[in-house]
Amino acid sequence: MAYPATRSEAVVDTLHGQQVADPYRWLEDEKAPEVQAWMKAQDGFTRDALAKMPGRDALTKRFTELFYVDSVTAPFRRGNRFFYMRTHKDKEKAIVYWKDGESGQEKVLLDPNAMSKDAPVSLGRWVPSWDGKRVAFPVRPNAADEATLHVIDVDTGEWSKVDVIEGAKYANTNWTPDGKGFYYEWLPTDPSIPVDARPGYTTLKFHKLGEDPKKDVVVHERTGDPTTFLQGDLSRDGKYLFASILRGWSENDVYWKHPQEKDWRLLVKGKGAKYSVLAWKDRFYVVTDEGAPRQRVFAVDPKKTDRANWKELVPEDPKATLESVSLVGGHLALEYLKDVTTELRITTLEGKPVRTVQLPGVGAASNLTGLEDQDDAYFSYSSFTTPRQVYRTSVKSGKVDLWAKVEVPMDPDAYTTEQVFYTSKDGTKVPMFLVYKKGLKKDGNAPTLLYGYGGFLVSMQPSFRASILPWLDAGGIYAVANLRGGGEYGTAWHEAGKGANKQNVFDDFAGAAEYLAKEKYTQAKKLAIYGGSNGGLLVGAAMTQRPELYGAVVCGVPLLDMVRFHLFGSGRTWVPEYGSAEDAGQFKTLYAYSPYHHVRQDVQYPALLMMSSDHDDRVDPMHARKFVAAVQNTKGNSAPTLLRIEANAGHGGADQVAKAIESSVDMYAFLFQVLGVARPDAGVAAESR
Fold it and tell me: Which CATH architecture is the domain 15-64+410-675 placed in?
C-alpha cells in the first residue's frame, strides 16, 4: 500500500550496555506540526481505505439496531430518593435520572447530551450525598481522564458556581453523613510538573460546600512517588476515614483515623498483599489476599487493630476466587468467580453462610448493591448471549425478581457458548470461552476473533457484547482466553503474568491460537486477534513473536514501547505491574518482549488495524504511532497496516453511540475483508461477494 511517507532517524540509546534503536522517536511529540500532519495523513489514508471495504451498509444497519437501545441501570437509594441511568434509542449518551420513592415521578438530573455545544464532554462517576439532596460529578472534556468536579442541587437542578474543582482526574467523592461536604483525591494541574511525575502529587482533601476549593484542607499529603496511588474512603456514619497507598494492583498500605483527629493510624502495611476495608457499626471488614491467593475476609475491632487480633470471618475458598464484598441488609454479600463464572453468596456479619443467590444462568453478575440497613438489594446479570438484566432481591428472604432488562433485537437461542481448557507452553491449564452460532462445523474454516487482556488482576468474564453478533451471524467464532496476569484464579494467577513473568501471558495467548487450529475450529489465515490497552500490548507482542499464527490484528490504545512507557501518560503507575527500563534487570525483561523493538524487516506480518484516540491521556498514543511507522516501513511485509485515530476521544474511545457504530463498522469491515469472510446467508457480508 502507498502509505504516507514516514522518515526515520538514527536514534540509538545505550541502556545497561544494550544498544536500543528508536528510529521513530520524533513521533512522540504530538504537538509538533510535523507529527500533526503525519497523523492527519495516516488517519485520512486509513479512512479512505476502510470506506472502500464492502459490507459497510449492512454492518451499519445492524450495529444501529444493536447499539441504540433503551436500558436502565440498577438504582442507588439515598434517603428516600432513587438515582439511576437510562440509555435511549434516540440519544447518544446515557442520562442520569432521579425520583422520590420507587414509584415517584422520574426526573432528569444530568444529561451529558446537552452539557456542551462547543466541545464534547463526558460524565464521570457521579455520587449522590447520603440524604439525596446533592450529587457530585466529574465532567471530562473529550472523554479523557482529566476532569473538573461539580456539584448539582437535586431539587433545583442548578450547578453550584462555587463548588467547582479542577484537578479531579483521580477524584472519588466521599460525602459526609450531613451532606455538607466531601473528601476527594486532588491532582494539581500545574504544567511545570512533568507528566510522568504527576500521580505522586495526589493529595486527599476535604471540601466544604459553598467554600472556595482553593482553600480546601489537605488531610493526607502526597506520597511523592509516581508509581503509587492515593485513595480515600469514609464510612457511611462518618466515624472512620481511610487512606490507602497502592503500589500497583498487588500491594497497598491502609491508614485510618477519626475525621476530627490530626494523625493517621496504620491499620496494615502491605507486604506483597492487598487490603480493602468496609466499616459498619464500629467494626472493620477487611478483604485481603494475605496468606490466601483467592482472598478471605477478617473482622477487626477499631480499638484492637493489631494484626494478632484480627478475626477470620470468611476463609479462603480453594475452588473459587473472591472478587468483591459489600454490606447490604445486615449481611455480607460476596461475589465469587468459579472457573470464571459468577457465584453470589450471602453470609451473616459473622461469616455464617446463609444462601447462594439464584442466578438466571451461567454468566457474569455484579455483586449486590444496596445499603447496610436496607433489605432490598440489586444486581445485574448477563452472558455472552444474554443482554444485561437487573434483578432485585430481598437479603432477608432470598426472593429474586427481574427489575429491568435490555431488549436487543436478537435470538439468544441461535447461539451457543462452550468453555474449554487448553495447555500453555509451560503446562499450565488455561480456560477459554468460545461463542458461535449453533450448527458450526469444526472443519478449520470458521473465521475466529480471539480476545484477551492478561493483566492488572482484571478478570475476563462471560458478559454480553452486542458488537460480536454480526460476526457470529457471519459464521464466525468469538473466543475469550482467560490468560495469566488476570484475576480469574486470584493473586497467584496475576503474579504468574506480571513483571518478570509477563512472557507467560503471550505464551498463553499463542497457546489459545494453536488450540483453535489443532481442534479444527479455525486456521491461521482465518484467525484474528483483538485487544486494547494492556490487551493492545498483548496483541502487539503476539504479532511480533508469532506472526505465523494470525491472519489479522486489531490493536486498540496500546502500550508498545515498553522501554519508554513509564515516561508518558500514567506510565509510572504501571511500573509495579511491568517493571521499569531504569532498572537493569527489569529492562532486560521489558526489552525482550517490547513489540516496537521487535518489528523485523524480513517478516510477513498479519494485517493490522491500529485504533487510537487523539485525547488519550492514560496511554499516550505515541505507542500506536511509532509501532505503525515501524511496521509500515518494513521491507518484507505486504499486509495492510492502518492507523485509525478517533477524534475527541480518550482512552475508552468516544462515548457517543454513533461513534461506537462507526468504530465497529470499520473494525469488522476490515476483518471481513482481510480474512475473506463472505457469507451471503448471513446478510452482513453479502456485499463482499
Answer: 3-Layer(aba) Sandwich (3.40)
- Residue 134's nearest CA partner among 168, 98, 101 is 98
Q: How confident is the model at residue 534 (pLDDT cuts 50, 70, 90)?
A: very high
Catalytic residue among 533, 580, 663, 688: 533
Give catalytic status of residue 533 as yes or no: yes
Query: Per-residue pLDDT tens for 455-497?
Result: 999 999 999 999 999 999 999 999 999 999 999 999 999 999 9
Residue scoring higher pLDDT (469 or 677)? 469
Question: Which of 104, 70, 99, 69 is CA-nearest to residue 84?
Answer: 99
Count CB-CB contacts under 10 A for residue 429. 8
381 and 389 Cβ atoms separated by less than 8 Å? yes
The C-alpha cell at 82 is 432513587
HSE on the CB side for 338, CA within 13 Å? 14
Residues found in the chain: 689
Residue 131: DSSP 8-state: T
The answer for residues whose C-beta is within 8 angstroms of residue 142's C-beta and 6 or more apart is: 119, 120, 121, 122, 614, 615, 648, 649, 650
Q: Where are the domains of the chain?
A: 15-64+410-675, 321-407
Query: How many other C-beta atoms can be found within 10 angstroms of the C-beta atom of residue 410?
Result: 19
Phi and psi for 139 in degrees, rounded to 5? Answer: -110, 130
Q: How far apart are CA 17 and CA 39, in angstroms?
A: 34
Residue type, 249: W
Digit-coded pLDDT (tens) for 615-647: 999 999 999 999 999 999 999 899 999 999 999
User: Is the alpha carbon torsion for 256, 259, 260, 262 positive or negative?
Assistant: positive
Which residues have CB under 8 Å from 305's CB, separation 6+? 265, 267, 284
Assess whether pLDDT exceeds 80 at residue 682: no
* Count of C-beta atoms within a 10 Å radius of residue 501: 14
Q: Which of 651, 663, 664, 688 is catalytic?
A: 651
In three-state secondary structure terms, 268 is strand
Residue 526 pLDDT greater than 90, yes or no? yes
3-state secondary structure 650-686: ECCECCCHHHHHHHHHHHHHHHHHHHCCCCHHHCCCH
Closest to 124 (Cα-Cα) out of 173, 81, 78: 173
Mean pLDDT of the chain: 96
594 catalytically annotated: no
Residue 654 pLDDT level (bands cut at 50, 70, 90): confident
Check if the beta carbon of residue 299 is closer than 8 Å to that of residue 284. Answer: yes
- State whether the Cα torsion 501-502-505-511 is positive or negative: negative
Q: CA dist 263 to 220, 221, 258, Å?
A: 9, 12, 9
Spatial neighbors of 450 by CB under 8 A, at least 6 apart, are: 479, 480, 481, 509, 512, 513, 516, 527, 528, 529, 530
